[in-house]
Amino acid sequence: MTENRGLRRAGLILCLFWLFVAAFPLYWVVITAFKPPLAVSGGATYLPFIDFQPTLQAFRDAFAGLRGDFWGPIVSSTLIALVATALSVFLGTMAAYALVRFTFRIRLLAGIVFAVISVGGFVLLDVYTALRVPYALAIVLVVALAVSVWLNGRRLPGPVLGNDDVTFWFVSQRIFPPIVSAFAIYLLFAEIGKAGLPLLDTFGGMVLVYTAFGLPFAVWLMRDFLSTVPLEVEEAALVDDIGRLRIFFQIVLPMATPGLIATSMIVLAFVWNEFLFALLLTTGDWQTLPILLAGQNSSRGDEWWAISVAALISIAPMVVVATVLGRMMRSGLLSGSIK
Fold it and tell me: How many domains are contained in the chain?
């Protein structure tokens, strides 16, 4: 009994130590945002009203535009993150439902043919025709998709991929570093812009990229959530001659609401904090908060009070999201939906 108490105490001490290590950087950012410049440059100060007198001057300067445009990135991040999250979760939920309820058989050879026609056809059109890149890419993708779908229905030799392989393909999109696709997306958007449809530094372009960015997370998470929805409920609806779309929207989605909330919050966190795509694809009009935070320096050096204000503005929404999600989990709202 004494040994168990000793272990519990040791575990409590380790947890408290880890809490201090994890929370101290956030505490330091918070108090630095309320420090006057002299309290920052004059040496380390830790306790408000004791070591220094708190002030809101850094916040006033930030929102007055003395440190650049704060309101623009806040609005841009909010609109882009909410719309991209909604699209990612909606499309990902539909894909996850299909992976849970239907059986897919994809012949590997048909996939290889799709890749060969896409890459080879694009190179040929680019070299031997005067088509612009977007038009050439659209043509080869349509042709490659039609041919590969037709071939997939034939008796081709080679392995046949199933639902688990399709799910892994979705997840694999987040395995390789984003920089691998970031430059390719930038060049593609630039070519599309030359064709008359501007996507660089636009709301539509950022939403498109972030929807694709969040889609693998949504498919992966919602597949597990939807697998917990009883199949018997859908079978009873099918007996009553209710269509699949109506079953999905009126039966499956309401039953998977806890999973939709949890997935939306997780995808929102990833989209909100994404930096690389926003850095490459925006120049000013639709820059997001991570870009604002990275640019908080001046000719006078690093003004840490202003940087701390920008950091607080960036992390505050995600702290709220994490708090809400934690409360939902503790209250049991998500019980039975998370494996």
Answer: 2
Q: What angle do CA 279, 281, 284 make, to 5 degrees?
A: 75
DSSP state of 251: I
One domain, residues 219 and 279: yes
Residue with tokens 């209250």: 331
Write the pLDDT tens digit of every residue in 112-134: 999 999 999 999 988 888 888 88
User: CA 328, 329, 334: angle at the middle one, nearest 5?
Assistant: 85
List helix spans (H) across the chain: 2-33, 37-41, 57-63, 71-101, 108-128, 133-152, 163-172, 179-194, 203-226, 231-239, 244-247, 253-255, 257-273, 276-281, 289-294, 304-331
Residue range 83-123, pLDDT digits in tens: 999 999 999 999 999 999 888 888 999 999 999 999 999 99
270: tokens are 């990833």
Residues 39-72 have pLDDT tens digits of 777 777 778 888 788 888 888 887 877 666 778 8
State pTM to two decimals: 0.84
Alpha carbons 279 and 290: distance in angstroms, whole number: 9
Task: Extract the tokens encoding 182.
Answer: 């970031």
Q: Which domain holds residue 247?
A: 41-103+163-174+191-339
Asked if residue 140 belongs to a domain, the reply is yes
CA atoms within 13 A on the CB side of 81: 26
